Amino acid sequence: MSFDLAARLAARRAENLYRQRPLLESPQGPEVVVDGQPLLAFCNNDYLGLANHPQVIEAWRAGAERWGVGGGASHLVIGHSGPHHALEEALADLTGRPRALLFTTGYMANLGAVTALVGQGDTVLEDRLNHASLLDAGLLSGARFSRYLHNDAESLAKRLEKATGNTLVVTDGVFSMDGDIADLPALARKVKAKGAWLMVDDAHGFGSLGREGGGIVEHFGLGQDDVPVLVGTLGKAFGTAGAFVAGSDDLIESLIQFARPYIYTTSQPPALACATLKSLELLRIEHWRREHLQTLIRQFRQGAEQIGLELMDSFTPIQPIMVGDAGRAVWWSQMLRARGLMVTAIRPPTVPAGSARLRVTLTAAHSEAQVRRLLEGLADCFAQLSSESAHA
Ligand SMILES: *Cc1c(COP(=O)(O)O)cnc(C)c1O
Q1: What processes does the entry annotate via GO biological process terms (predicted)?
Q2: How many Cβ atoms sit within 10 Å of the Cβ of residue 353?
């Protein structure tokens, strides 16, 4: 027996599924340098344009001078410092929940919350299109694991009928590859009727949805009764890094006791928490960022529909263009890149087979002129594709 890695890699390449890492040679933003080439990019998750904001950078710098650069220990030993604690209080306030708990990444927050809440003899029900970290968390928990049809409260209700033990229903708030949002009021009604708990991972909704950037629960006006377990990540609209779970005092204390990905890891650098405190302040008060983003989303959708592109049902900054075939998605991405535009091709297994797409993301840092440039590039490629298939 040996590991035939070369054959495995060759097979992946043959299926047009081979992944490569573009090398970013500039700060994050609309105008970047990638692999030596200046590009106008529409693929980061920095929805509010805070990842390179001077005030956030200054907060990080001042935080490092005051607190040093490393967390130094796990939270339960001696790594839980003042800025971590202040950030947890500010996040509880943003979410309207009694408490919030800081995690190092969203992936770990999801693993930690699900595995602390359910185990053998319990049930975890997830939307089919949930983020990989939520699916992994469900599998790792050891609970009975089943997936319901995408955003389908009836399909969920059928599975709830058969659920045993403590039952956790888990969904993305904004679906990361489709841009649509969970029908939380309908899901919450079914979940509450069965005495189960709803957990929402709103990685893409915080900052971009809700009047103050409170995400999907603010958008729908849902409280802790409806969504007892609320997860947010800090690497997207917040522009920094890390994640949090918000909820009741008992929930947070339980995570501190039982969430292994919380307990057995070094706390994030305190200076990072200082930076996030500043970006959280900007995220809440600078409404113009969300308003400008909505203007760009409308502009993009109108323009793309005029070209004849297939969009998805989304009013969020995630605006995928459905292409279908993985090879064709790569072709689009390369053609755009030749025109100075960077848009990522998303292929299986990240999305179901046959639903490869270009994942366009818009941010408050983009201008209307930049969105126009994207639309011109897309129109060009579309025309070329149509003329090629006419000759084929
Ligand atoms: C990005 C993302 C995560 C992971 O968050 P990280 O902080 O990047 O680890 C989790 N859930 C969803 C829905 C995401 O989009």
Answers
A1: biotin biosynthetic process
A2: 11
Residues 236, 278, 292, 366: which is the catalytic one? 236
Question: Which residues of the chain are under the pLDDT cut of 50?
Answer: none
Class of residue 386 by CB neighbours under 10 A (exposed 0-12, middle 13-18, buried 19+) = exposed
Q: Which residue has the tokens 């699900």?
A: 114
CATH 3.90.1150.10 location in the chain: 16-48+287-391
pTM for this model (two decimals):
0.96
CATH classification code of 16-48+287-391: 3.90.1150.10
User: Which residues lie with the beta carbon below 6 Å from any ligand 1 atom?
Assistant: 105-107, 110, 131, 133, 172, 176, 201, 203-204, 233, 235, 243
Q: pLDDT value at position 258?
A: 98
- Residue list, annotated binding site for pyridoxal 5'-phosphate: 106-107, 176, 204, 233
Contact criterion met (CB below 8 Å) for 288 and 282: no
User: What's the chain's Rg over C-alpha atoms?
Assistant: 21
Inter-axis angle of helices 132-141 and 106-117, nearest 10: 30
Q: What does the pLDDT read at residue 1?
A: 63
- Chain region(s) in the chain for CATH 3.40.640.10: 54-285
Structure tokens, 72: 């130094």
Maximum distance among all alpha carbons in the chain?
68
The yes or no reply on domain 54-285 and CATH 3.40.50.800 is no
Q: Cβ distance 229 to 117 under 8 Å?
A: yes
Residues 6+ apart with CB under 8 A from 181: 173, 174, 175, 205, 209, 216, 219, 316
Q: How far apart are CA 56 and CA 255, in angstroms?
A: 29
pLDDT at 385: 87
